[in-house]
């Protein structure tokens, strides 16, 4: 997915006079990116509420904003851990066994 499209999609959630909110989104992204790299933790737990509180984004947009970065990060981490043989296959097996059906069931129940 093109980053310009993502950026435009996120910014389209703002009212046209919300330049301060656009600056807040960029600052939140910089701070969360720095903290994520420094601490080695996904920034979604920080960015989602920060986007709602400080940038005034609707909850759905704030929740979805970090998702485009999550997939490539997870794939690259999986490749790195796999090369070092650090993946616990038993944990992966049970996560897929129970996590996938649970996700599908909750999705169906929520509609």
Largest sheet: none
Broad shape: flat
In round numbers, the mean pLDDT is 80
Helix content: over 70%
Class from helix and strand fractions:
mainly alpha
Straight-line N-to-C gap: 27 Å
% residues in beta strands: under 5%
Report the radius of gyration as a whole number of Å: 17 Å
Number of strands: 0
How do the helices and strands follow one another from N- to C-terminus?
HHHHHH
Helical segment tally? Answer: 6
Could you name the ranges where pLDDT drops below 50 across 5 or more consecutive residues?
Answer: none
Description:
The chain has helices spanning 3-11, 19-39, 44-55, 59-64, 67-83, 89-110. The protein has 111 residues and is an all-alpha fold. The protein has a domain at 3-65. Helix 2 (19-39) packs antiparallel against helix 3. It is flat and about 50 Å long. The two termini are 27 Å apart. The mean pLDDT is 80.
């Amino acid at each position: 997915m093109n980053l310009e499209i993502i950026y435009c999609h996120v910014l389209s959630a703002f009212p046209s006079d919300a330049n301060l909110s656009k600056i807040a989104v960029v600052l939140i992204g910089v701070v969360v990116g720095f903290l994520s790299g420094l601490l080695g933790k996904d920034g979604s737990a920080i960015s989602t509420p920060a986007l709602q509180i400080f940038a005034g984004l609707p909850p759905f947009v704030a929740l979805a904003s970090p998702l485009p970065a999550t997939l490539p990060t997870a794939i690259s981490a999986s490749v790195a851990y796999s090369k070092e043989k650090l993946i616990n296959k038993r944990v992966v097996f049970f996560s897929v066994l129970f996590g996938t059906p649970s996700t599908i069931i909750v999705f169906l129940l929520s509609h």
